[in-house]
């Protein structure tokens, strides 16, 4: 009897195991079908975006490399967002730009005063003595989120291309951005009175190896950035396109003339997208730049604290840009004007240019009577 019953027990045991495994197999089959169905919409969505002309990433990279030489740094080995963000000083040191040259210049200057800037070798503030700046702290603070290979795609404008070293630094630091630059020295040769550039002064931008490619790609725009007509034409024709990424960063590193710097502020602040920034470089105590530091900047800061209460006698210095500015952050010789959440707009010509009394009315706006007894 025992010999006959053993196979029956074994068969019963196997049947019970199969009974338990069948539901598990069914669950696995259902999950497999579900995963396949989830993948199909993703493929279809990618095809749909491609058919609508929306870049899926690879096409955009190819287009960028076709029109402009790819000078971006090699991708980091790790893929996390934190690890791929770059350091501006490290990137800029490779291009020879003056934006971070202050570090090495200061070291040499302190060792040998003859290597300091001639008229600054006795400056009480040592950082003012060498040629070059220390702008990496500003750019790391405000641009680092855009410095990774998987960063949000933005539009970036540089005013003052010069020889292109700064532009190359930005190009390498912002690998996904659409970069534009403005330069006056590449205007047609001729007298300044005719809106041209004297041939004997030279075209500085041609020193950039990518000059021709940038011009052909409509990324380097030749003109006077202090003129409303040039700014408006460049903005509307080449930058304000339906397929363009949002304008988030404008950097003024142009002529360092107070009037031109003010024009950049009034023209671009309303047009920069919410959360974007306008960077004003070289706000130095020089004769041509100083009025921006002493007249324009203080009025902007005053307007930041304006409330418009009937109980306090106060008035705006710059009503055309005050509604768009969230904050002003400054370090030595450089300031960042931060856009608030107000949507960008296309102001009239009058509200896009520097007010006629912006410089002459500074003392009245800053030091006039601002308080009275509450009504």
Walk me through what this model shows.
It comes from Chaetoceros tenuissimus. This is Methyltransferase. Pfam families: Methyltransf_24 (PF13578). InterPro entries: SAM-dependent_MTases_sf. The N terminus is likely disordered. The protein has a seven-stranded mixed beta sheet, sandwiched between helices. The N and C termini lie far apart (112 Å). It contains twelve helices and seven strands. Helices cover 39% and strands 10% of the residues. It is α/β, with parallel strands linked by helices and 375 residues long. The chain has a domain of 252 residues: Rossmann fold (3-Layer(aba) Sandwich), CATH 3.40.50.
Instruction: Describe the oligomeric state of these chains in a short phrase.
Output: single chain
CATH homology-level superfamily of the domain at 82-99 and 134-367: Vaccinia Virus protein VP39
Helix count, DSSP H or I runs of 4 or more residues: 12
Bin the strand percentage: 5-15%
Structure classification:
alpha/beta
Q: Could you tell me the radius of gyration in angstroms? A: 30 Å
Q: Pick out the low-confidence regions.
A: 1-15, 37-79
Main beta-sheet annotation? 7 strands, mixed
Overall outline: globular
Report the count of strand segments: 7
CATH topology description of the domain at 82-99 and 134-367 = Rossmann fold
CATH architecture of the domain at 82-99 and 134-367: 3-Layer(aba) Sandwich
Strand order of the largest sheet: 3-2-1-4-5-7-6
Quote the distance from N terminus to C terminus.
112 Å
Instruction: Give the % helix.
Output: 25-40%
What is the H-and-E element order? HHHHHHEHEHEHEHEHEEH
What is the typical, i.e. mean, pLDDT? 84
CATH class of the domain at 82-99 and 134-367 equals Alpha Beta
């Amino acid at each position: 009897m025992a010999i006959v019953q053993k196979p029956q027990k074994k068969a019963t045991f196997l049947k019970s195991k199969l009974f338990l495994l069948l539901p598990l197999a069914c669950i696995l089959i259902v999950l497999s079908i579900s995963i396949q169905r989830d993948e199909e919409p993703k493929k279809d969505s990618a095809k749909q975006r491609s058919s609508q002309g929306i870049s899926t990433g690879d096409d955009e990279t190819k287009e960028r490399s076709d029109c402009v030489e790819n000078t971006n740094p090699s991708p980091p080995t790790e893929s996390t967002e934190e690890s791929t963000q770059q350091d501006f000083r490290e990137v800029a040191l490779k291009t020879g730009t003056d934006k971070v040259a202050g570090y090495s210049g200061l070291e040499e200057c302190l060792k040998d005063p003859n290597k300091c800037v001639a008229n600054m070798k006795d400056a009480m503030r040592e950082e003012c003595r060498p040629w070059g700046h220390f702008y990496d702290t500003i750019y790391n603070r405000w641009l680092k989120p855009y410095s990774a290979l998987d960063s949000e795609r933005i539009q970036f404008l540089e005013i003052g291309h010069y020889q292109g070293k700064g532009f190359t630094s930005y190009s390498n630091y912002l690998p996904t951005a659409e970069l534009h630059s403005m330069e006056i020295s590449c205007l047609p040769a001729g007298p300044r009175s005719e809106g041209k550039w004297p041939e004997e002064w030279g075209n500085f931008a041609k020193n950039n190896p990518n000059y021709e490619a940038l011009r052909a790609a409509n990324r380097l725009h030749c003109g006077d950035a202090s003129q409303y007509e040039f700014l408006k034409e460049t903005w509307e024709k080449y930058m304000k396109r339906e397929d363009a990424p949002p304008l988030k960063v404008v950097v003024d590193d142009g002529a360092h003339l107070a009037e031109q710097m003010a024009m950049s502020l009034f023209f671009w602040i309303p047009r920069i997208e919410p959360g974007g920034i306008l960077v004003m470089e070289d706000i130095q105590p020089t004769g041509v730049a100083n009025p921006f530091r002493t007249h324009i900047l203080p009025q902007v800061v005053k307007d930041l604290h304006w409330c418009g209460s009937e109980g306090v006698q106060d008035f705006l210095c710059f009503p055309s840009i005050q509604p768009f500015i969230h904050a002003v952050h400054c370090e030595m010789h450089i300031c960042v004007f931060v856009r608030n959440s107000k949507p960008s707009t296309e102001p009239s010509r009058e509200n896009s240019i520097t007010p006629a009394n912006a410089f002459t009315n500074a003392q009245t706006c800053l030091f006039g009577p601002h308080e009275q007894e509450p009504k």
